[in-house]
Design goal:
With 170 residues, the protein is an alpha+beta fold. It is built from four helices and ten strands, in the order ββββββαββββααα. The N terminus is likely disordered.
Length: 170
């Protein structure tokens, strides 16, 4: 179990499930399965969290020219989950933007290795406490579960394309 910004993270390398939660504890003998085990995530209090803490606050920057007014900085708690799930520990999420759609957050960003872009405008989505990979780069480069079948969503859906536009500024 990892701890990122004070939240325990549970990785299931074989199944790709990654969930996080508050005070729940997993024992070393617990087996996690994709279908049944999740840990409750703290509900974001607002669209984005301050980058240095786990406390949610209002967005610190307005969307730049070319971005939809729906684009906001991606919530820190989800960026931390995505960063911790990359197959290569040298990868990180760059230019993380998000669109809130009901209870879901659609998160887009570039997969970076230092200053080098590994993959462009990839897409993840939240469903409850879990984060799912939708785009090809997100699926190939992370241990997160492919959300296309279980959620019936796709990076090519209208909102997936919209969050990609948030990242690219187009």
């Amino acid at each position: 179990m990892l701890a990122v910004i004070g939240l325990p993270i549970l990785l299931c390398g074989g199944c790709g499930l990654m969930t996080f939660g508050g005070n729940d504890q997993a024992s070393d003998t617990t087996t996690t399965t994709r279908a049944t085990t999740t840990y409750a995530a703290p509900a974001p209090a607002s669209p984005t969290a301050a980058r240095s803490t786990a406390t949610a606050t209002a967005p610190t920057t307005a969307p730049s020219q070319g971005r939809s007014s729906r684009c906001v900085e991606a919530p820190d708690q989800y960026v931390a989950v995505i960063d911790a799930a990359f197959n290569d520990s040298g990868h990180s999420l760059g230019e993380p933007w998000a669109i809130r759609d009901g209870d879901r957050w659609w998160i887009g960003g570039h997969i970076m290795e230092g200053e080098r872009r590994v993959s462009s405008a990839d897409v993840w989505v939240t469903d409850g406490p879990a984060v799912f990979a939708l785009s090809g780069g997100a699926r190939r480069n992370s241990m997160l579960v492919d959300g296309r079948d279980p959620l019936g969503l796709n990076a090519g859906d209208d909102i997936g394309l919209a969050v990609q536009s948030c990242v690219t500024g187009r």
